[in-house]
Structure formats: C-alpha cells, structure tokens
From TrEMBL:
Transmembrane segments: none annotated. This is Phosphoribosylformylglycinamidine synthase subunit PurS. Keywords: ATP-binding, Cytoplasm, Ligase, Nucleotide-binding, Purine biosynthesis. Belongs to the PurS family. It catalyses: N(2)-formyl-N(1)-(5-phospho-beta-D-ribosyl)glycinamide + L-glutamine + ATP + H2O = 2-formamido-N(1)-(5-O-phospho-beta-D-ribosyl)acetamidine + L-glutamate + ADP + phosphate + H(+). InterPro entries: PurS (IPR003850), PurS-like_sf (IPR036604). Part of the phosphoribosylformylglycinamidine synthase complex involved in the purines biosynthetic pathway. Catalyzes the ATP-dependent conversion of formylglycinamide ribonucleotide (FGAR) and glutamine to yield formylglycinamidine ribonucleotide (FGAM) and glutamate. The FGAM synthase complex is composed of three subunits. PurQ produces an ammonia molecule by converting glutamine to glutamate. PurL transfers the ammonia molecule to FGAR to form FGAM in an ATP-dependent manner.
Length: 92
C-alpha cells in the first residue's frame, strides 16, 4: 500500500529543548562533528488505493490542520514513499 510521509519541524524561532539535550549528549558519545540539532516529527499515512492529487491535497490539509501546531511548527515536507526502501517521490 502506498504511504505519504509528512515531516514537521519546530519553527526556527521556537526553543527546541529535545534538540538541545541531544546536541549536548552527542560529544559525550563520541559524535563531535555536530553543532546543532532540531528534533521534529514524522508521520506516515497509509493510503488505500492510488495516491491521486486529491489524496495529496488531503494529506497537506491534514498536515497543516491536525498533524502540526501552526503556531510553533512548520510542515516542511509532504511526499509519497515510492516503495519499502528509503526512496521517495517528491510531492510538495
């Protein structure tokens, strides 16, 4: 079954305490190449049937109104997962 992936991130001006905790822990674990982390959310919406333009529009609307809090978060990506691998097809 096809899936649509929605990625949501905190707006840049919003404090991200989870990201700060992660970036603080990385050097202690030996990961020294990173100076910042922002943690977001990923949703996978399973579709019964083909992914049409109408289905993508419904996913975008759900992302903007239900899957994210528009006051503090941005929907940064809505895409169709091409198959069970990590390949994706852009649908923004």
């Amino acid at each position: 079954m096809p899936r649509i992936v929605v990625d949501v991130m905190p707006k840049p001006e919003i404090l991200d305490p989870q990201g700060k905790a992660i970036v603080g822990a990385l050097p202690r674990l030996g990961f020294t190449a990173f100076s910042g982390v922002r943690q977001g959310k990923r949703f996978e919406l399973t579709v019964d049937g083909p992914v049409t333009d109408d289905v993508l529009e419904q996913a975008r609307t759900a992302a903007a109104t239900m899957l994210s809090n528009p006051v503090i978060e941005d929907v940064v990506n809505v895409e169709v997962l091409a198959d069970e691998s990590t390949e994706t097809v852009e649908a923004n």
